[in-house]
Amino acid sequence: MINLKFVGVISFLMIPIFFGVFSENSTSSKINFESRNLQKLSLDNKENETLTDISTEDVSISVKFKYDNFEMRKQMNIKGKFEDYRDEFYDRSKQYFTSKNNELLKKIDTSNMKNIYVSKYTPFFNFTLKTKELTTSISPLKRLSNKNYIDEINIKYPAKRAVKEKLYGVKDTLGINYINNDLGYTGKGVKVGVLDAGVIDEKNEVFAGKNITIKPEIFNIKNVQEHATSMGSIIGGNEGIAPDCSLYSLQAIFGFEEEFDWLLDNRVDIVNASIGSGTVNGKYNSDSAYFDYIVRQYKLIVFAAAGNEGGSDGSGSGYIANPGLGYNVFTIGDCGSQFNPTNESSWVTVEGPTKPNITAIGIDVEVPGMDGSHTGTSISTAVVSGCTALLLEKFPELKGNPAAVYALLGANTSIMAGDYGRHNEPRIYEGAGCINIDKAFVNQNLLRYGHSTNTDFYFMTPCSPGDGDILKAYGFWLAYSDGTVKSLKFHDYDIVLVDINNATKLRTRGMKNNFEYIEYPVYTGGYYQAKFALFDYNEELSSVDDDCGFAIGLIEP
Length: 557
Description:
The chain is α/β, with parallel strands linked by helices. 23% of the residues lie in helices and 23% in strands. Helix 7 runs parallel beside helix 10 (377-394). The longest helix is centred in the first third of the chain and has 24 residues, at 82-105. The chain starts with 30 loop residues before the first strand and ends with a strand.
């Protein structure tokens, strides 16, 4: 997450533009106003002076069409590795959604809409207005919402915000230099999308000879930015974590439809989202819902920053930023080089899953090619993205398997300072702990993943930890979303840990998240078996159709 103490860098973080209230009865239930806090915007009051004050601000309108989301995988009766059918799956999806969207758009009066972008891969289109124009456009928006082929309209307020943020030491601490130099993995053959408030400065010396693709802008001036450059340097610069990966840099301005279309066209494997929009007091919003839809539909591995709202003294709101509240997004908090947690990292959720999922080192990091030291969950997220690029080079079968990757990372985390010997749920400040990528390499044989097709779905993974080891188990499955907040659904899976005598040592019973986690200190070494099973079938879902991953990590304290 872009950090508030690094003044001069511009982020995509949303701030409250103005305050006011409007009557719930004055607008359609399909129209959602999203701002950084709970205040509703005074759109019916044409005398509101604050509208005049900010008449030059841009407003983003995201519209979702109502039709079959077309889970192509089912219709193609796909079997085997995702890589083997990805191109056909993407191409057929693009053809379907492009045709349906253009067909319905012809029914809409678009004369007052600016910067119209129609998604090629999802049932959405996006356009912009000036803030003042909402006073005159709210009626047309109401009329649009009354169309039976319109499902939802989300109004968003992007704005500029001043922000805060020794890679060399980080690489040593996390075992990355060993993976790069001794094992020879450098991210070759892996594509990483860097979604930020600007784009990478490809002229920076740290990118000499690197494979970088910059997205051409349709509606906006290309904004070369220090923050995006820092993320790219950490992930795939010459001195970065995965120096041979391919970087795809793009800026998020008004929405994510255009951005993800481009990422899908370029077949990226990982998306680094070190950005965030303001939450409504920690509530899951349409940005997170859109990310959830993309991940489930197109199997992208997405890492998002938790946010830096904790405050260095714990005085901040602590609210997790969207899209970090996404259920199918792996959200990253930050910690120090000694695996000590920081109060600056956000952790609070009101409506949404428990976050962050894991942490990574993100305190006082010296980024190659950039001046000074940097701090924030943006840094941590880039660290995880780079580490995952190394993992996908070693295990290419994990491409297109976000649930498996998340499970493997979640199970192989280092114990955080002061947290030895805890339990069967993620900690609110640091999730499952700090990423331990070298352990993920070693323990990859304890990973199980697949696609559930019936109510008896389960994995069993035997392991033999030594006396004093910490046995960790992490299960993850993709939630269902059609891109709207109201559509979010998921089944309930549990983890059961038994010993050699089949005696239950620990069992999870969480129902809030689409992941389960346990941590068990082994006082007597020997044979253990962890089971990951569907516990409760949700009748609201038509079938059990989940991508699942389940992994065990054995950590020496």
